[in-house]
Amino acid sequence: MRLLPINRLFLVAVLAAGATAAAVPAIADPGDKPGTIVLVHGAFVDGSGWADVYRILSRDGYKVVVVQNPTTSLAEDVAATRRAIAAAEGRVVLVGHSYGGVVITEAGSDPKVSALVYVAAFAPDRGESVSSLVANAPPGTPALPILPPVDGLLLLDRTKFSAAFAADVAPEVARFMADSQQPWGAKALEGQITAPAWRVKPSWYLIAKDDHIIPPPAQRMMAKRAGATVRDVAASHAVHVSQPGVVASVIEEAMIRSAEKGKAIGAAPHPARHEMRG
User: Fold this and answer.
1) Which has the higher per-residue pLDDT, 61 or 10?
2) 92-97 and 153-154: which strand pairing?
3) What InterPro entries does the record tag this protein with (predicted)?
4) Is residue 164 within 8 Å of residue 96, measured between CB atoms?
């Protein structure tokens, strides 16, 4: 068999590599798009639940920051989120899952925030709290499998975690989530909203239709009164884990559309804005 000279072999390899690279879609450099996406987790979990959403957004060229809330009180969680907003580059799209929706509702009035994204999340109005929203849950809503508080901290019953919180998540992942819960401070449930950001900022809401933590009718009610752009998905409460692509697409839509609004954000009439209740 006749062998090719070394230099010809090298040339063939280079050309082949170039052809392969041309056939593969280019991946954006992380952070090459203006603005920052700030992800805020909810109760019983931490920021690691955003991992797949983070990877998709970063791959698509967005700068992403994941807040690690102490989840001890609303005030402390809002403070942690405001620090992330202050450190972020450019305008911010603020994203909250579950109880994280309460946090972004209070923290989102920051001038740097251009839009809010609620992911199967609480979106309380002025004077409301998690406790008040849960107390007014739709009839027939199942009781949450929350264990009695220990030292003022709450956990979900590990044996019921998957069915309630993460029914469509891979069993081994759901078990890990159950066994790595971050205790939720009972004081956080009582924290009241003083200035709901969705009254002055455009909002998006992803409704998880198979959610057993926040009933879908309650999600729809909160989305409607916020005048949010709504999308539905067949998913559990842990939609950010089971459907990261859908979650990322809603966030990217908010990022793009809020950028198009520019200086008009906050100036145009809000479709669901009401006079503040005293």
Assistant:
1) 61
2) unpaired
3) AB_hydrolase_1 (IPR000073), AB_hydrolase_fold (IPR029058), Sec-Metab_Biosynth_Hydrolase (IPR052897)
4) no
